[in-house]
Design brief:
Elements (H helix, E strand, L loop, with lengths): L8 E6 L1 H4 L8 H16 L3 E6 L2 H9 L8 H24 L5 E6 L2 H4 L1 H16 L3 E6 L13 H11 L4 E6 L4 E2 L11 E2 L1 E3 L3 H6 L12 H12 L5 E5 L5 H6 L6 E4 L8 H9 L5 E4 L1 H10 L8 E5 L7 E5 L5 E6 L4 H7 L7 H5 L13 E3 L1
Parallel strand pairs: 1-2, 1-5, 2-4, 3-4, 5-9, 8-10, 11-13
Antiparallel strand pairs: 6-7, 9-10, 11-12, 13-14, 14-15
Helix pairs in contact: 2-4, 3-4, 7-9
Length: 372
């Protein structure tokens, strides 16, 4: 029996397929029912954050488009138009329950920059104190690849970790995680409980059932990892099921619950390095260095570095990849990419001879390195 009654703060992410008809246009009946569930939670004393898709779908309806835009400028223009309509619709529906909402448009820089992250966190708590529902979306109208989060599953996971939500719920067009793709395999079984994300779990993931959204099952597993590594839990539900939000929080076993009881959550700074920061480049290391980092939690020394990609300065975040190109860690560098190019593969004693100065023996100190 799931015990969710003591939960006070819930982040709910609703996908495009849960908000729209098959043609991509907004379905106000679906949205109204969702808002009623969220309003019920708020009147019951819960603090609720809504992460919503649907801005492009709303823009399509306002502009009279019959198919989803294909170019980035068209999508951004459509999102800009649709976001106004979408937030107005939410406010009208919430007003029927005597509640208010606030719009917050975010991108990855809001999580990477520590000052902006602090300001964002303070805004959330001020809204909670006023019993206002924050409604979150990515700032699609101006986002470019360098600052784009890319999907609202991940955005919701980041928000849930920042506000330290008791539960992160993803409402999608699927019932949860199956052992195989239920659309192509009749023997696929729904998994109701996942304790820790293993390679086997990732192998079960497949694409989403809808062509309207951007988040497949892999992005949902990535979001789950972000949440459970911060000490939270995530529930993946079918948003079209009647009263899915209320029934699941009442203890009914719907969807797939993701937790991790086997490992300790990351500290806030570690979580920021691993999941909220955006890597400025990559450092490729040999197998010996990978073993030292992963098994023995050692610092990264110049000797183990094979190559460097990207341009970054001292104090910026980079990903550490193995010889196959697979990322397994992130950390804060103590040397710039230009300097690392010069000292890669050498012993730390040789740094002074090459750079004419040496501030550190390590490229990334163990205290500033997080293993995925």
């Amino acid at each position: 029996m799931r015990k969710f009654k003591e939960m006070n703060r819930v982040v709910v992410k609703v996908g495009t397929s849960t908000l729209t008809n098959e043609n991509g246009m907004l379905n106000q009946v679906k949205i109204s029912h969702l808002v009623t569930q969220l309003a019920t939670l708020m009147h019951g004393g819960k603090e609720v954050v809504l992460v919503t898709s649907g801005a492009i779908g709303a823009g399509m309806g306002v502009l009279g488009l019959t198919k989803r835009p294909e170019t980035i400028p068209q999508k951004q223009a459509c999102a800009a138009v649709g976001q106004v309509y979408l937030i107005d619709l939410y406010q009208q529906l919430l007003a029927q329950h005597g509640l208010y909402c606030a719009q917050m448009l975010l991108n990855h820089d809001d999580f990477t920059n520590r000052e902006r992250l602090l300001n964002m966190t303070n805004t959330f708590h001020a809204l909670f104190e006023q019993k206002v529902m924050p409604i979150i979306n990515e700032n699609d109208a101006v986002s470019v690849d360098e600052i784009k989060i890319g999907d609202n599953d991940t955005l919701g996971g980041l928000v849930a970790s920042v506000v330290r939500a008791d539960m992160y719920m993803i409402l999608s067009d699927i019932n949860g995680l199956y052992t195989a793709n239920p659309q192509t395999n009749a023997d696929a079984k729904l998994l109701s409980h996942i304790d820790g994300l293993t390679d086997e779990i990732y192998q079960m993931a497949s694409g989403s059932g809808s062509a309207l959204g951007t988040g497949g099952m892999i992005t949902k597993l990535h979001a789950a990892k972000i949440v459970i590594k911060s000490g939270g839990q995530m529930l993946l539900l079918n948003g079209s099921q009647h009263n899915a939000v209320l029934d699941s929080l009442a203890g009914k076993e719907l969807g797939t619950l993701f937790v991790d009881t086997k490992e300790k959550p990351l500290h806030a700074r570690e979580h920021w390095i691993a999941y909220r920061s955006k890597a400025k480049g990559f450092i490729c290391v040999d197998d010996g260095a990978k073993d030292a980092l992963m098994k023995h939690r050692k610092s990264l020394l110049p000797k183990g570095v094979l190559s460097v990609e990207g341009e970054f300065l001292v104090g910026e975040i980079v990903e550490v990849v193995d010889e196959q190109g697979t990322a397994f860690a992130k950390g804060i560098v103590q040397y710039s990419s230009q300097d690392i190019q010069l000292i890669k593969g050498v012993h730390s004693q040789a740094i002074t001879d090459i750079l004419h100065e040496k501030h550190f023996d390590e490229i990334i100190h163990a205290n500033n390195l997080v293993i995925f």
